[in-house]
Amino acid sequence: MSDSPNGAASVDQLLTIVTRIAEQARPGEELEVYASRGVETDVRAYGGEIEQLSSASSAGVGIRVVSDQRQGFAYAGTLDEGAIAETLAEARDNATFATPDEFLGLARPDDVAPASLDLWDDALSSLPTSAKVDMALELERRVRGGDPRVRQVDAADYGDMAAESAIATSTGITATARRTICSLSVSAIAGEGTDSQTGVGFSAGRGPGDIDADHAAADAIKRATRMIGASKVKSGRCVVVLDSRVTSTLLSVISSALSGEAVTKGRSIFAGRVDEEVACPLVTIVDDPTDVRAFGASTHDAEGLACRRNVLVDAGILRHFVFDTTSARRAGTASTASAVRGGYATTPTAGCRALLLSPGPLGVDEILAQVGEGFFVQSVTGVHSGVNPVSGDFSVGAEGLMIRGGVLAEPVREGTIASTLQRMLQEIIHVGSDIEWLPGLAAGQTLAVDGMVLSGA
Amino acid sequence: MLVDPAVVERVLGSALSRGGDFAEVFVEDRRAIGASLDDGRVEELSSGRDRGAGVRVVVGETTGYAHTADLSESGLLLAAEAAAAVARQEGGTRTVALSPSEPTRPYDVTIFPEDVEKARKIELLARADDAARSAGSAITQVSAGYGDSRRRILVANSDGVLVSDDQVRSRFSVSCVAMGDTGMQTGFESAAFTVGFELFDTVDVEEIAAAAARRALSKLSARPAPSGEVPIVLASGSGGILFHEACGHGLEADHIAKDASVYVGQVGSQVASPLVTLVDDGTIAREWGTFAVDDEGRPAQRNVLIEDGILTDYMWDYLRARQEGRHSSGNGRRQSYRDLPMVRMTNTFLVDGESDPEELLAQTPHGVYVAKLGGGQVNTTTGDFVFGTVEAYLIENGRLTEPLRDANLIGNGPETLRRIDAVANDFATSPGTCGKDGQSVPVGTGQPTLRITGVTIGGTAGE
Questions:
Q1: Are residues B346 and B383 in the same domain?
Q2: Quick check: B265 contacting A, CB < 8 Å?
């Protein structure tokens, strides 16, 4: 059997495998079988040569068993028939050790039809490796030649993947999905004297026609060069304008507090606050995996239900959370078809795929002009250690540029910005019109937040 | 042996059939079990197996890599062919003769996890849940996780290396939520070692749970952390992550080779306070970042990186060492057979100084005492790094006073290392997971109590 996804026939073959296993459910037992496989190519250019070229294919199966209200799970990194049979036996055995939970259960078909989404670009499969190599080399060349202050390009990468998955359950679910992603990313080091600064640029899409080396190169150069000469800033409270990528990161953090799983277990700043005002009226947050522009777009969720648009915060009022089947039952509601999983080796949980803030009327330049004085954050660090979605405490490392007279001014490094998520949501003063879809689970947009503490010297 | 050495020889020969300076086969068979308790219930027991091999071919400055889950000779030969695609020469066969070696094992596992009944692993979770909940009625949520893994690897290369390792790791963690008048706070504690189930002969899960609960409870009355530059006292074992981020990554030879580190050209220079001696050592029995051989078949070793403040050496993998005509320092690691190895840390720590930890604190008139650090991140090019506190207190007149809410600290590596003005003699370690270029590997960190004269803390108070 081929290890590679190569079109509709291949994903049907995957569906045949999972269906055959799901049919082996014993009386009183629910079985969910998920299988995926993918191919990836990664090329890294350095110094005008190819530093690394790796081609990878992987395939695996994850089996979830629910019996007597207990769940067991097992996985194997292969589609080998014998290994799948062992995995099923292991999942059944594992289930006997869990504590019974009346809310446990697999998804059941509902009446929502899957959106018709084209997330697959055939051009990728016919793209020869030499063309991928050329793109990485060209990307590096453009950054090195793009500005005399560029000293080094420590990584210029081309990457692509084609992945497909199939799921079948003994409760009547069958679904397949497939998608491609193609990307360029480049990290530039620019400097003058002893000062070196870095900037990362990228471009991504479904296929080779969607990626733009000029855009990625210009982005990396701009970000690195405008930081040259950065110094520490005095501490104080100010308006902070977040670059669209930073907003995407912020939304990803907020999304973990919007997970029905976190909420039902009392592990979210939003627990118990439905229909309350949790943000200022400018804030409407929608998770819509049926938006084809989103990198997290999908026809089905990780439990095989058709994905749908969910409005989570509407004009500042918290309306809903995202649920998978079990967390929905625990909360006494229906799944929002928001099960996500990290691959065949993990069980599904509730999560967002395609978050978007409803755009405001202004673009980035107009927002800077309106703000007048403040701090523009180009990038943040320490998000995984400095943001707590349970307490809401927010404190991250930040670099960027001061905003003076409504335009970007001198660069700032080694600063932090701090507030709480609760307060930030209340103090958003502009949501940008500049929607940029980025790989990840949230779109990027410029965002202006008042009352944040900038710490420096 | 995961794969017959005769097969490995033929695969290496095929990998070099189009030219190429170096070829390597890395075979891995990893079994893992994870169990989690949440909301009072054992939610799930999960087990799995991932097995496969990666073939690497190096031609000049170019590396080709391919991997497969098919460990048959034909599967391995296909991967070899794909990896060899970076080499341009016409046909021909190369013969590789392997000379097997037996590495020194840092530790002998006494109880292999697969020999322990699942029920015994589960039972640990319930004990932790009880202990955490009994720490106080304000504890509203507890989750506990148990995990073990056994990773067998075989590495062979065209230099004749043929070596295997059998890495057994066990971990246990507890995370708590406490509810108070000002909202919720969280606390986390873990124990993770490169050992078998005997871990639980010496590590008490109730103590781990109690520590996590105490951490969450202590923060219920916490005030916002200050903002701006303050003196910091780091408690022993609270987070050698500081050194991992502040200089460890910047001493990885791949960043050095690309001029992407503030430590380029600094060997022999004073890069830190004379009180700083920093070591990376993969041989320490039981530690989380320990192994017998690295993922390139090189035995683990002890590397002194900074001695009395002077930079002595970087860390090296095969590729970077080869470019400099030297040997790898045993720092070539990878997440799995699907990944290329690169320079990674093992157990990175600051060695003991001479101060007494209590005196050190008493002699600090004001500042922030960090009892536990969370994660961190560094930009090796600028040297700027952050790390987050998960338990911290205000120091006033040499004594701990109020607990502080979580905040990030930000500093510049070389600057911060120069500002270390006291190092105590109470060394302790803690486990971590290090991410680089999308790959995660277990690492150890460690440090005695120490003081830094100034680090920027990103709280919201005192503006």
A1: yes
A2: no
Which residues 229-248 in chain B show a CB within 8 A of chain A?
A: 229
Per-residue pLDDT reduced to its tens digit, A7-16: 566 899 999 9
The answer to whether residue A2 sits within a structural domain is no
Cα–Cα distance for residue pair A257/B304, rounded to 1 Å: 43
Residue B366 C-alpha, separation from nearest chain A C-alpha, in angstroms: 17
8 Å CB contact between B419 and B365: no
Q: How far apart are CA B351 and CA B414, in angstroms?
A: 18
Decide if B457 and A399 are in contact by the 8 Å CB cutoff. Answer: no
Residue among A94, A381, A391 whose CB faces B186 most closely: A391
Q: Which residue from A minimizes the CA distance to B390?
A: A385
The residue among B271, B225, B270, B162 whose CA lies nearest residue B410 is: B225
Residue A361 distance to chain B (closest CA, Å): 31
Q: Are residues A319 and A188 in the same domain?
A: no
- The residue of chain A nearest to residue B462, with distances taken between CA atoms, is A236
Taking only the tens place, the pLDDT of each residue in A183-199 is: 999 999 999 988 999 99
Q: Is residue B411 part of a domain?
A: yes
Mean pLDDT of chain A: 95
Q: Which of B28, B31, B49 to mutate to test the interface with A (most CBs of A within 10 A)?
A: B49
10-residue stretch averages of pLDDT, chain A, 457 residues long: 56 95 96 96 95 91 96 95 96 96 96 95 94 97 97 95 97 96 97 93 96 97 97 94 97 96 94 97 98 96 98 98 98 98 95 98 98 97 90 95 98 95 97 94 97 92
Chain B interface mutation, best of A43, A228, A416, A452, highest count of B Cβ atoms under 10 Å: A416
Q: What is the pLDDT of residue A356?
A: 97
Strands A317-318 and A310-314: antiparallel
* First CA to last CA distance, chain A: 61
Residue type, B414: P
Let me know if residue B139 belongs to a domain: yes
A293-312: b or e for each residue (b if 16 or more CB lie within 10 Å)?
A: ebbbbbbbbbbbbbbbebeb
Residues of B in contact with A197 (CB under 8 A): 381-382
Residues B128 and B239 grouped into a single domain:
no
Cβ–Cβ under 8 Å, residues A138 and A8:
no
Q: How far apart are CA B448 and CA B463, in angstroms?
A: 32
Distances (CA, A) of B392 to A58, B135, B211, B218: 44, 20, 14, 10
Rounded distance between C-alpha atoms, residue A215 and residue A222, angstroms? 10
Contact flag A189-B405 (C-beta cutoff 8 Å): no
User: Which amino acid, residue A80?
Assistant: D
**Coil, strand or helix at A249:** helix
Q: What is the mean pLDDT of each run of 10 residues along chain B (463 residues)?
A: 94 93 97 96 94 95 93 94 84 78 92 96 97 96 97 97 97 97 92 97 97 96 93 92 91 95 96 97 97 98 98 97 96 97 97 97 97 90 92 96 94 94 96 93 96 94 60
Q: Which domain holds residue B199?
A: 113-149+167-220
A33 with A71, same domain: the answer is: yes
